[in-house]
Amino acid sequence: MTHSLKIRQVGSSLGVILPKEVTGTLNVKEGDTLFLTEGTEGYRVVAHDPDFEKTMKMARDTRRTYRNALRELAQ
Predict the structure, then answer these.
(1) Residue 28 burial (10 A CB sphere; 0-12, 13-18, 19+)
(2) Nearest C-alpha neighbor of 30 from the set 15, 12, 44
(3) Nearest partner of 34 among 23, 66, 3, judged by Cα
C-alpha cells in the first residue's frame, strides 16, 4: 500500500503528517520515536530500533562464549 505524504513546515524544521491508518499499523502515538533506515530501494520508516536486534545478538553470543564465567559470577 502506498501513501503520499506532504512535507510541511514545523517550526524551523520540516515534517510529515502520517495518516491515522499508518500510525495504527505501526502502533505508534504522539511522542513515540520512529526510525528512518536506508535500504536498496530508498528509505523505510520503522517503529523499532534497527540496531536493537544486532545488539541482542551480540549479547547472546557473549553470554554463550562466557557461559562458565557468568555462572561463577552469579554465585
Answers:
(1) middle
(2) 15
(3) 23
CB neighbours (10 Å) of residue 35? 13
- Kindly provide the residue ranges of all beta strands, DSSP E only, lying in the chain, ordered along the sequence: 7-10, 13-16, 35-39, 42-46
Measure Cα distances from 19 to 11, 23, 32, 60 in Å. Answer: 20, 7, 15, 38
**Strand-pair partners of 49:** none
For residue 22, what are the CA distances in angstroms to 1, 2, 5, 67?
10, 10, 11, 43
Task: Give the residue, 53 or 33, on which the prediction is more confident.
Answer: 33
Confidence of residue 39 (pLDDT cuts 50, 70, 90): confident
pLDDT category at 49 given cuts 50, 70, 90 is confident
